[in-house]
Model the fold of this input.
Amino acid sequence: MTPAEIERLGERAEAMLEELAAISEDADRLTRRFLTPEHRRAAHLVGQWMAEAGMAVSEDQLATVRGHYARAGGTDGANRVPRLLIGSHIDTVINAGKYDGMFGVVAGILAVEHFRDADKRFDFAIDVLAFGDEEGSRFPTVLSSSAALAGNFEQRWLAGTDADGVALATAMRDYGLDPDAAGGAALTPEEALAYVEVHIEQGPVLEHQGAPLGIVTSIAGQFRTRVAVRGMAGHAGTVPMTLRRDALVAASEMVVAAEAIAKAHPEAAMVATVGTLKVMPGAANVVPDGVDFVLDLRAASDAPRHAALATFMARCEEIAAARGCTVGFDTYHDCPTAACAPWLQEGLAASLERLGLPAPRLVSGAGHDGQSMSKLTDFAMLFVRCRDGISHNPLEFAATTDMGLAVAALIGFIAAFDPKQRPA
Ligand code: HGY
Ligand code: MN
Ligand code: MN
Done:
């Protein structure tokens, strides 16, 4: 592939991402949450691109858009044929960048289009997947759509509600889905040859190394734990400081404790974040009697992460007791560290080498659908350099040349992919 062709691929990707980024719940920033009307519009657009690239398009019971590129001989139909899975997500965080997730879907579409234009088919099919709930930015679920495809949808998720009190089951019906059929989204292990995801790095490592692309070795495990602190409402002007049971001051100490615990474990690459916090009753002249916040806790390996959560919870109990408050915990997401399959890493590395590129390895601190898919099949991830390592922020940026190289590397990986190479 010539440099001009690679640049052209990157420009195509940028234009597609720009078109997707215009589909947002907010007028002045990119926010597109699971099962919203904007998700529906983005899913429709992605389905159109898949069809134009020569794929048969369907949507599963968790709203994942699936583009199917049939095997040589073209007799797939609805048969459960072996397929290489390529995908990522089209939902976003609040005030998101336009590359996180979407680029992996666009890269898959451009790769299949390349083979369709070359009239090239394989003895395996290719499915390009656009997942709708990777971020967990609407419901108390994370990775639910890829979990469903991997056969791990949990019925308890259906009762989870968004900030407006809308249950997932209700939102599914409003979207045109049947919550009772959620389990039907699953692929069998026999159908899934491997899963490969292309994603912006969301960190500074590749830029620091001067490498446009990198190969992920593993994805850090993560908890999301809802913490409910309860105290006693009171008059801001009359309750003496020594008699207060102030839920917000207690919660604030807990947030600082989470930071201290993570900072104490640099060897585990541990990070702790509280990104949402709700104060009740929420009046300036009332001592807060309730605070709900969510702790996002991650580490490169699972043992220190579990130990850190136990330490955090014990510290919260101490803080609550000292302040006459109570504290409750609900860990609604516990996703273990997921290792990328060496044979797939080597396939990606060989493709980068054929392009004359270095093939640095790195751990992903960000979570990805690959963590769900690792429970169904072997998986690998190809990272693209991220300017200043900024993500989950509209300043997120990947250069067109780097994106073009990622698509070219994916094309090279697919062209050389041999399922028989999978270790027994
Ligand atoms: O939170 C994450 O790591 C991912 O962006 N969902
Ligand atoms: Mn993200
Ligand atoms: Mn992502």
In short: The pocket of (2S)-amino(hydroxy)ethanoic acid (ligand 1) is lined by residues 134-135, 366-367 (CB under 6 Å).
